[in-house]
C-alpha cells in the first residue's frame, strides 16, 4: 500500500523538496568525512595511485605469451587492489546502455509508481524498491534509494517484483545477467590458476553453475545539498565473491588504498569489478576485498548497477582453501557459512557503532580503518 509516510521516507523526496540542509540522520560522524571534497575535481586528478584498468581482450588468446600477460595483469590487480576497471570484457556497449536506460527510466517514474514495487525489510521481503534503514546505534542513514532483485539463475528470479515499466527492463536485465555470469566464469578461472589451483576450483567453491546467485542492486543517489556531510553508501567491503558495477558516468566511488581514499575514474564502456570477502577468505587474503564507499554531489544524480555474485547461504563452508595455507601462512579466517559471515559482519557493525566515535577516530588511520577491519576475528 502506497502511503504518504513511505513516499516521504525516500531520499529522492528529500532532494526534490528544496531543502538546503540535510536532516541530522544523514549527517555522518567527522571521522567518516575524511577526504570528502569536490568529487568532480577529484575524479580529474592524475596525482597519486589510480585504480588499474585491465584489458580482457586477450584473456583467451591462442598465443600463450599474450594470454598469460593479460591474465597476470588481472591477478596482480586482484592481489594489490581488489578492484579494477574491466575493458574489452565481451559485453556489448549496446546491451550495457539498454540496461542503464531501463534502470534510469524506472527511477524517472513518479515515486507513487515506484512505491508499487516497495520492499518490506521488517517482514524479510528484501527484494524491490527501498531506502536504507538505519543499521547502527546512532540511527544514521545513507543518501540513496535503490532497487534490489535476484537476476540469475533464471529459476531463482521472481519476475513478479521486477519493474514492468519500461518494457525493455526485464529483457535487457536478463540478457545482461546471463552475459555477466559467463564473464564471472572467465574471471574465476584466471583467479583459480593464479592460486595454483585447477581452473574450475574457485567457481566450484562458490557454488558452481547451479548455485552461484547474481543479485542486482540499482543504487540511486539524488542530488544532495550538503554532500560534504553525507555518504551515499558508507565504507564497507562486499560480502560477495565478485561484484560487477556499471554507472552513469557520474563519479562517486572511492577506494581506501595505501591509507587514503582514492576516487575512481569514470572509464567509458568499462565494468568496475570488486573482489569480495568470499574470494578473500578462500584465497586466505591473497586476493583483496577492498574497503570502499560512495559519495554524493550537488549537481548530478548518480546511478550505479551493482551485481553481486554470491555463494549459497548454507550449503558451502567458507574457509581458506588448504592449498593457500602453510606453516608460514596459517589460515587468517575462521570457518563459516556464507550466512554466518553475513551475520558476523552485521554484529561487528553494531558493536562498532556502540563504541565511542572519539576513541574510534584516534585509533584509526585517517579516520577510516575502524570500519575496514577484516573478518579474521
UniProtKB/TrEMBL annotation:
RNA-binding as UniProt keyword: no
UniProt keyword Isomerase, yes or no: no
Biological processes per GO annotation: flavonoid biosynthetic process; pigment biosynthetic process
PANTHER family the record matches: OXOGLUTARATE/IRON-DEPENDENT DIOXYGENASE
Gene that produces this protein: ANS
Record-stated family: Belongs to the iron/ascorbate-dependent oxidoreductase family.
Keywords, in A-Z order: Dioxygenase, Flavonoid biosynthesis, Iron, Metal-binding, Oxidoreductase, Vitamin C
Pfam families: 2OG-FeII_Oxy, DIOX_N
Top-level taxon of origin: Eukaryota
Cofactor(s) the protein requires to work: L-ascorbate
Protein name per UniProt: Anthocyanidin synthase
Organism (species): Rosa rugosa
Molecular function terms, GO-annotated: dioxygenase activity; L-ascorbic acid binding; metal ion binding
Residue stretches making up the Fe2OG dioxygenase domain: 212-311
Amino acid at each position: 500500500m502506497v502511503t504518504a509516510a513511505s513516499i516521504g521516507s525516500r531520499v529522492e523526496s528529500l532532494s526534490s523538496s528544496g531543502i538546503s540542509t540535510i536532516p541530522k540522520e544523514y549527517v555522518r560522524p567527522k571521522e567518516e568525512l575524511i577526504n570528502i571534497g569536490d568529487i568532480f575535481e577529484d575524479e580529474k586528478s592524475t596525482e597519486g595511485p589510480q585504480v588499474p584498468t585491465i584489458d580482457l581482450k586477450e584473456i583467451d588468446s591462442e598465443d600463450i605469451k599474450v594470454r598469460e600477460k593479460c591474465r597476470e595483469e588481472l591477478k596482480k590487480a586482484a592481489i594489490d587492489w581488489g578492484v579494477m576497471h574491466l575493458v574489452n570484457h565481451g559485453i556489448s556497449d549496446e546491451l550495457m546502455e539498454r540496461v542503464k536506460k531501463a534502470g534510469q527510466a524506472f527511477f524517472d517514474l513518479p515515486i507513487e509508481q515506484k512505491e508499487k514495487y516497495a520492499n518490506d525489510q521488517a517482514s524479510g521481503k528484501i527484494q524491490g524498491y527501498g531506502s536504507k534503514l538505519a543499521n547502527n546505534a546512532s540511527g544514521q542513514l545513507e543518501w540513496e534509494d535503490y532497487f534490489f532483485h535476484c537476476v540469475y539463475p533464471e529459476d531463482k528470479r521472481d519476475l513478479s517484483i521486477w519493474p514492468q515499466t519500461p518494457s525493455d527492463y526485464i529483457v535487457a536485465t536478463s540478457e545482461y545477467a546471463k552475459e555477466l555470469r559467463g564473464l564471472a566464469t572467465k574471471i574465476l578461472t584466471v583467479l583459480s590458476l593464479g592460486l595454483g589451483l585447477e581452473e574450475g576450483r574457485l567457481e566450484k567453491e562458490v557454488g558452481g553453475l547451479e548455485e552461484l546467485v547474481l543479485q542486482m542492486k540499482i543504487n540511486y543517489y539524488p542530488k544532495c545539498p550538503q554532500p560534504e556531510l553525507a555518504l551515499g553508501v558508507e565504507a564497507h567491503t562486499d560480502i560477495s565473491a565478485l561484484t560487477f558495477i556499471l554507472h552513469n558516468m557520474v563519479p562517486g566511488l572511492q577506494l581506501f588504498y595505501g591509507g587514503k581514499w582514492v576516487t575512481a575514474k569514470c572509464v567509458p564502456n568499462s565494468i568496475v569489478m570488486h573482489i569480495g570477502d568470499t574470494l578473500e577468505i578462500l584465497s586466505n587474503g591473497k586476493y583483496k576485498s577492498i574497503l570502499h564507499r560512495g559519495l554524493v554531489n550537488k549537481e548530478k544524480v548518480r546511478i550505479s548497477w551493482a551485481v553481486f555474485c554470491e555463494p549459497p547461504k548454507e550449503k558451502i563452508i567458507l574457509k581458506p582453501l588448504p592449498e593457500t595455507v602453510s606453516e608460514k601462512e596459517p589460515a587468517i579466517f575462521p570457518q563459516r557459512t556464507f550466512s554466518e559471515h553475513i551475520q558476523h559482519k552485521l554484529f561487528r557493525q553494531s558493536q562498532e557503532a556502540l563504541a565511542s566515535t572519539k576513541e574510534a577516530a584516534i585509533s584509526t588511520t585517517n579516520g577510516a580503518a575502524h570500519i575496514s577491519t577484516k573478518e579474521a576475528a
